[in-house]
Amino acid sequence: MKRRKPSIAIVGAGLVFLAGPAATGQRPLPDPHTFLPEVRARLQTDAQRQYGYTYIETQRRTTLDRTGRPTGESGTVIESDPGFPGEARWERVIARDGAHVSDAELRSQVEKRQQQVDHYVRTVTRQTQADRARQEREWEKQRRELADSMDDVFRVYEIAMSGRELVEGHSTIVFSLTPRPGVKPISGDGQWFRHFRGRAWISESDYELVRLEVEAIDDMDIGMGLLARVHKGTLASFERRKVDGDVWLPTRATYTMSARVLLLKQVRVAVTSEFSHYSRAAIAGPAHVTPTR
User: Fold this and answer.
1) Strands, E, within 27-186: which ranges?
2) Out of 16, 98, 131, 245, which could bridge 198 as a Cys pair, Cβ 3.0 to 4.6 Å?
3) In the chain, where are the structural domains located?
4) Rounded to 10 degrees, what is the CA torsion of 21, 214, 293, 263?
5) Confidence class of residue 263 from pLDDT cuts 50, 70 and 90?
6) Is the pLDDT of residue 80 over 70?
7) 36-45, pLDDT tens digit by residue?
8) Do residues 252 and 276 make contact, with C-beta atoms less than 8 angstroms apart?
């Protein structure tokens, strides 16, 4: 069972940092004491929202010099399908830098996936009642960790309603989020939240996250600084839109990051991922324990 790692998508689940709101009307803003509980009831990670769907991810990665000017660019198109219950998604690269991958590489990826399927079937077939009970306990632990992460959004941040904005014609309520000093998070992700500030755009009618942008307010270490150090000023943004007229799903994620990896190499990159061609997939299993990438 793979452990769910903290992801910037979860960090982004409650944050945004850029421009202030523009008025979209003079009607009173909703009462935050009734509005925010509705938001919390619907708040989920991108991985949870995308569980049960196949989609295409188009990723563009740009390396930057010290002044922020591009020095190189690459692009990847990925087919993404739901993984088995409790496991990561299956991804197949179908294009790189504007060119389709070879038939041989596609076959190799399919063969690797089939090996994973065979292994999973053998594992499930051999499971004892004790194994299934142990797996359910692990899933329950992951469910609690995710719930704690979502609760930490409201525990760590001072959340202030700041106005109303239209996002592609959809009325949203804008919130600023500022880390509270001295608050102790209860989740691992909550420890990351303390290093970010921002603002979030929430659908006024659906109470769903529509847009968020985040900024690191100080340097932070990954793996006690042995893996990487993310620098102050790192930016990220996330967008969701209604798909099929009823489900809010991720459509775009971007981040610009400056980090020192393994205490040696300085990395400056800008990455954009766009998600499209959503289609419901027939798969059973607990979406709330799907690992984040």
Assistant:
1) 53-64, 70-81, 90-96, 99-100, 157-167, 170-179
2) 16
3) 8-286
4) 170
5) low
6) yes
7) 999 999 999 9
8) no
Q: Report d(CA 50, CA 88) in Å as an integer.
A: 12
Angle formed by the axes of helices 129-156 and 32-42, nearest 10°: 150
pLDDT in tens, 180-194: 999 999 999 999 999
β 53-64/70-81 pair status: antiparallel
HSE-CB at 150 with a 13 A cutoff on CA atoms is 18
Annotate 61-85 with b (16+ C-beta within 10 A) or e (fewer).
ebebeeeeeeeeeeebbbbbebbbb
Q: CA–CA separation, 3 vs 273, rounded Å?
A: 23
Question: 89: which 2 tokens?
Answer: 């998604």
**Please, is 166 exposed, middle or buried when counting C-beta atoms within 10 Å of its C-beta (0-12, 13-18, 19+)?**
middle
Collect all residues with Cβ–Cβ distance below 8 Å to 182 and sequence separation of at least 6.
none
C-alpha triplet 14, 18, 19: angle, nearest 5°: 125
Phi-psi region for residue 97, left (φ > 0), alpha (ψ -120 to 50) or beta?
left
